[in-house]
Amino acid sequence: MGISACQKERRLIHASCYNSANALTMEPGEALGIAAQIAVTLAGFAGVVVVFRREAVHEWSALDKFRLRLLLGNSVLPLCLCAVALVLLTIEPVPTGVWKWCSGVAFVVFLSFAITMMRRFQRLDLQQRQGRPATFIFYSFFIFGIGATLLQLYNVAALGAFWPFLTGIVFQVMAAVFQFARMILVLPE
Q1: Could you write out the three-class secondary structure of 15-59?
Q2: How many CB atoms are closer than 10 A to CB 60?
Q3: For the chain, which residues make up each domain, given as ranges?
Q4: Are 81 and 106 in contact, with CB atoms under 8 Å apart?
Q5: Torsions phi, psi of 76, nearest 5?
């Protein structure tokens, strides 16, 4: 009995996704490529949000402009971090401390972004922030962001592993997804 083309394709897919112990695996380059594609898509969605609003961006409320900045920042940062990591992975042989370097860059970028966004949030009119569930959500994401940022620092100091770096990227992408959904589902201020 011969093996069909479909069965051959399934075997090839299985072989590329599983190691010799039959455990599901994914290479860092693949994961970074997927994260970069998602980040580019989210940045594009930011453009869709802008185009389909009735008024121009300069006519938006300060809170809506802030949300757009969050969406763009949480899309562009993971894209840039993925690009830096992918460039470092092309070095032959791959440097032993590549994930420490990447996490070091991520730590500085995340910290700068968090400080900038917190200052912008605090500058918003108090009436715009009071009594809104958005304030709770912002601070919740801010706290989780601090955790992701400190994880980068721990990775630089001790671990040197890929997963903490990817965790920071995934957090940023999830924050962008949430911000996009919020901008689509909630009426403009």
Answers
A1: HHHECCCCCECCCHHHHHHHHHHHHHHHHHHHHHHHHHCCCCHHH
A2: 17
A3: 28-185
A4: yes
A5: -75, -40
Token pair recorded at residue 59 = 């006519």
CA-nearest of 184, 183, 146 to 168 is 146
What's the one-letter identity of residue 142?
F
Report d(CA 110, CA 159) in Å as an integer.
19
Whole-angstrom distance, CA of residue 110 vs CA of residue 99: 16
Structure tokens given for 141 = 């994401």
Contact between residue 166 and residue 82 where contact means Cβ atoms under 8 Å apart = no
Residue 19, amino acid: N
Distances (CA, A) of 10 to 16, 25, 27: 10, 16, 19
Question: What gap in Å lies between CA 62 and CA 120, rounded to an integer?
Answer: 10
pTM above 0.85, yes or no: no
| Rounded Cα–Cα distance for residues 123 and 135 (Å) | 13
Question: Tokens representing 46?
Answer: 């930011």
Write the pLDDT tens digit of every residue in 126-171. Answer: 555 555 566 677 778 788 888 888 988 998 898 888 888 888 999 8
